[in-house]
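Objective 1b. Sequence-to-structure analysis of Outer membrane protein transport protein.
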Amino acid sequence: MRQPLLFLIPVFCGLTASAGGFDTGPQGARILGLGGASTAYINSIAGLSVNPGLLSQWGDSLTRLSFGGIGQLRRSSFIGQDTYQRTDQELAVQPGGYFYATRALNKRVTLGLSLTTPYGYHTKWPDTWEGRAVIQESRLNTYFVQPTVAFKLNENFGAGVGFIYAYGKYSQRRALGQYDDPSANAQLSASGSGYGLSAGLYGRTGDNLSFGISYRTGVNLKLKDGTSTYAGVPARDAAQLPASTGLNTQINLPNVVSVGIADRINKQMLLTFDFTLTGWSNLDSLKLDLAANGSQPARRVNQPRRYEDAMTFRIGAEYQVNPKLTLLAGVRYDETPIRDEFINPEFIDANRLGVSAGLVYQLTQRLNLEGAYSFEYGQQRIARTNPLSAQVANIGGSYRLAVQTASLGVAMAF
């Protein structure tokens, strides 16, 4: 029975490799312009996706809305260690979006709702590239719905808590390199949901200095009723690689701790700083439950990942040029949680340095247009194959990574 399981490992290996560092960035145009430094930032209700405690500061009689779109383009290049041939990923934009709404019940209690797309990616390599037996195309999409309630404890402090419902979809396609037929391939798809909580505090020591701290639990996406399919398999291997097999698994999205400070330097300038610790270490392994099919009994494949927790540092600046125009800028440094031995071309990640810029233009007193752009560049990663470990499907070579994210949105109050 061991041989059929070895055939399955490359199909699912990328699923685990993808579960590291695939956040899609700040969930709002204005906070994207700040580089994501928004744990103590109250000038946009998009901050409640990071810190529910911020919601306590919008306790007036206005209903506030903020919504927009996000597009992320991850470009990776690969140079094979044996062929020295360079391959670039094909263009594949990861779409996303956000929606926020807040309304105060009274001066002490405020309600909020957020719909965001915080995790995801779309990787697409040429169908004939040298790593086609590892991955050709893969996609992950997640959608978070978070109703939130916040309480204003006094004039300087507030607290909030939110319930998270998450839904995710995953798909993957790769070539079966052991066959001469170029149409022979393996595909899988699965979807499922999970739950979590988010809580945060906001405080200020005066008119100019404020702070925030937040915690979001991990969300375990239980992917059920998925399918693994094989096409173009010769008849001699059809029993080992059946046309369709049921699949259940789970993707563990990490817990996140954020601490932030905001300091108003003067009437025009505001500086923000965030430190984030993301608990990727809960992705120690992935268990894949495969349904019985023909002569193959139901079985479980266990793959070790041993990911590491990762830190992020963010600095943002907001400058009001005039009553209608505000400029934004940010710098961020992201650590990768993926160890060298688990680098995989389905989702390339590296320690990244990023910069961002944005603007807010006031169309009317209660209507703003917001836009932002960020660019991140990752350090080179070296992947080496290990013939003694069949649990990690890979191809030897070096990878480079660049990530571009753009967002355009509207904020209003009435």
